[in-house]
Amino acid sequence: MTLTSLTRRSEAAARLAAAEVSAPAGPSAPAGPSAPAERSNRDADGLAVASFVLGLVGLLVMNLLLGPAAIVMAVIALARSTTRRGRALLGLALGIADLVVLAFLVTGNGVVAWNFGG
Fold it and tell me: Residues 50, 80: contact at Cβ < 8 Å?
């Protein structure tokens, strides 16, 4: 990044800040600062739903991969204050259940590769 592009960015930021200050407050005003918060909330909601789905599917297949992925996504969604808190908590619980099911089946079979057939 060169000095010229840094000054252009700082000038653009200054113009944007001046436009936000001089803009009238009302229903026709642009979203401005609330747009990044809305996007972050939407991303957190998507993570909550994804953790729930991965945890649910992980009960049946690939629970070694999908369980930890569901747990990580649920924790990130909860850390980002998702509006779908219940779904994130279900994703967390299902991710943990995936690992419990895997441990139970591996203990019974004695190998990491398990199946339902005898």
Answer: no
